[in-house]
Amino acid sequence: xxxxxxxxxxxxxxxxxxxxxxxxxxxxxxxxxxxxxxxxxxxxxxxxxxxxxxxxxxxxxxxxxxxxxxxxxxxxxxxxxxxxxxxxxxxxxxxxxxxxxxxxxxxxxxxxxxxxxxxxxxxxxxxxxxxxxxxxxxxxxxxxxxxxxxxxxxxxxxxxxxxxxxxxxxxxxxxxxxxxxxxxxxxxxxxxxxxxxxxxxxxxxxxxxxxxxxxxxxxxxxxxxxxxxxxxxxxxx
Amino acid sequence: xxxxxxxxxxxxxxxxxxxxxxxxxxxxxxxxxxxxxxxxxxxxxxxxxxxxxxxxxxxxxxxxxxxxxxxxxxxxxxxxxxxxxxxxxxxxxxxxxxx
Lengths: 237, 99
Fold this sequence. Notes:
The structure holds 2 protein chains of 2 kinds. Chain A has one domain (about 25-230): Four Helix Bundle (Hemerythrin (Met), subunit A) (Up-down Bundle), CATH 1.20.120. By secondary structure, chain A is an all-alpha fold. Chain A has helices at about 5-10, 25-60, 65-70, 75-100, 105-135, 150-155, 160-195, 205-230. In chain A, helix 2 packs antiparallel against helix 7 and helix 3 (about 65-70) crosses helix 7 (about 160-195). Chain B has one domain (about 10-90). Chain B has helices spanning about 10-30, 35-55, 65-90. In chain B, helix 1 runs antiparallel to helix 2 (about 35-55). At the A-B interface, helix 2, helix 4 and helix 8 of A face helix 1, helix 2 and helix 3 of B.
């Protein structure tokens, strides 16, 4: 490693190699260890969301009518818009990782901030949806009532109203847990953007930004599954 | 450092594919396909997830172990869901004396 010698010709440190920690043989092994560690963490996150997904599978398969009926009170189009917002943030995150790899300092900062802004927009739209749910009395355990237009059908087909409420329990826990992950992601992006801005990282922060990107993109993948699971149950009926 | 840098073109193409798949999943939800609606929605979601994981998360270019970890997590998730559903849906199939 010739970091210090290198720095003299490159005061901004843009071409600088990452600093090698003593426990690694070389920088490749070091970056692979970081990335692999993040993937292992994401595997535990799959288990974290997996509990809710399993509960959802059990309730949806045992009371499909109640779930389909309850699901129709979600706003398909706001959910769709939110998916577009989150997919766009995936693109900007991928471009941020690319900028970090190419040591493009300015575009790295722009893409990181853009990703955070898109994440915040997602949360804003989510807040609008939650507000609508509140005004429609759909919050379980607080103000839940079977919506008026469903009452005849619920009585006629003997649909269990408590299972409709259970749909909203799972809806709020799954989207809520997802929102918590997004809030953590936005905070992470803020920290990473600041540290990149002050050029705190060696090696252009390429590995650190990529690890952050893995987390952010994982949260997007979760939403890719939540959207059809929660919003698109038998909407054609 | 050997690093794969995906071109802007690749990133944008994947993004457009993701948007098309989103259109497909919303469109398919409004078409009555009976029992096929749910598997189709999950198949499209899985395609989107695979695109994000392989290209945006660079699993395609990363160390092979990353794919082992990603697939292992899905394997455990499917075991959990499959066995739990098997339990809930097979209850009451047998008459157990005293139950």
